[in-house]
Amino acid sequence: MFFLRTALLALAALALGVHAAPLVPRATFKNPIKPGGGADPWVLKYGDSYYLTYTTGGDVRVTKSSNLAQWAQTGTQVFNAAGRFGSVWAPELHFIQGAFYIYVAMTTTDGNNANHRMYVLKGRSTTDPTQPFDLVGQITSPDNEWAIDGTVLIYGNGRLYFIWSGWSSGSDQLNQYLYIAPMDSPTHINGSRVLLHSPTPAWQRSGSNGVNEGPEILVHNGRTFLVYSAAGSWTQDYCLAFMGIDDGKDPLVASNWWRLDDRPVFWKSDKTFGVGHASFPYDRNGVPYIVYHGMSDPNAGWDGRTIRTQSYGWNADGSPAFPSPVGTDVSLNLPA
Ligand SMILES: *[C@@H]1O[C@H](CO)[C@@H](O)[C@H](O)[C@H]1NC(C)=O
């Protein structure tokens, strides 16, 4: 009798799908996701692995992991700028047309910020981005003005565009704008730059600086979003802002883009400050994650930044619905 009752309960549980409940609690993680400091995180999923690169200042490092929320403190050096360049900022690793490329801002060895320009590196291996990268050269529009934080938009039927943060000229060093230009290969721009956004809204300004930087492309449900960072990266108000383009319109026509200028889409909480410079990988179940840097001390500045992640959802119109950044005390489900 007792056995029969147990068997019936087990059958009922099966029918209800209760057996699918995990036998052990789901693994969790807490932020930050990389020990030690870090800024400008960029995560690429390639094959069944994840690869992280971030700002080190003197070289480019790539770290491999099986999970997008678990990273070793130190990555593999794939490019050493010593003796050739200074202030190596915000590398991005892309796999385009069968090869790995890293887009990175570097300046002269004296560290003079006014000399920052974008450079492109090409991976020697077409399967393993922790192998060495070679310098291809500078990537610039004909104006050759100051440029950082370059990224690639692959649009429509595969056309490539470079999008970056730049000065209008060397005589306007307090404002960073977003620009776009056409590419005719993953290593070359073949047209003039077009101004996409100016740091005009008050919340995109810190003191006398207006900052639009860290542009990143996020494609979802056939829509193309451009998520960028705004306000001073050294302040607690650093945040993410939003614009986009739809219906296959020409991205080189600035008026074809819509802009959300009245508010940020991801900003500080009472636990986590200065959040920005994000990238947007998916876990193996297709759950979207925002990988960004932030700080626990609102006044810590650049040295207080660490690399963090959190899952997010989607709004009815297909746009990302970013969460409020949790503190380092909160346990989150480990990404699949
Ligand atoms: C740049 O190259 C692309 C791809 O080859 C080409 O379609 C486009 O017309 C070129 N643009 C200019 C301004 O030359």
UniProtKB/TrEMBL annotation:
Name the residues annotated as catalytic in the UniProt entry: D40 (proton acceptor), E213 (proton donor)
Q: Where is this site: Important for catalytic activity, responsible for pKa modulation of the active site Glu and correct orientation of both the proton donor and substrate?
A: D149
Which keywords fit this entry according to its UniProt record? Glycosidase, Hydrolase, Signal
Q: Which CDD domains match?
A: GH43_LbAraf43-like (cd18820)
**What are the GO MF terms of this UniProt record?**
hydrolase activity, hydrolyzing O-glycosyl compounds
Q: Which domain of life is it from?
A: Eukaryota
Keyword field contains Nucleotide-binding:
no
Which Pfam family is one of those matched by this entry?
A: Glyco_hydro_43
Query: Which Gene Ontology terms describe the biological processes this protein takes part in?
Result: carbohydrate metabolic process
Which residues constitute the signal peptide according to the record?
1-20
Q: Which Gene3D superfamilies match?
A: Glycosyl hydrolase domain, family 43
Protein family: Belongs to the glycosyl hydrolase 43 family.
Question: Which PANTHER family does the UniProt entry name for this protein?
Answer: GLYCOSYL HYDROLASE (PTHR43817), HYDROLASE, FAMILY 43, PUTATIVE (AFU_ORTHOLOGUE AFUA_3G01660)-RELATED (PTHR43817:SF1)
- Could you tell me what this protein is called? Glycoside hydrolase family 43 protein
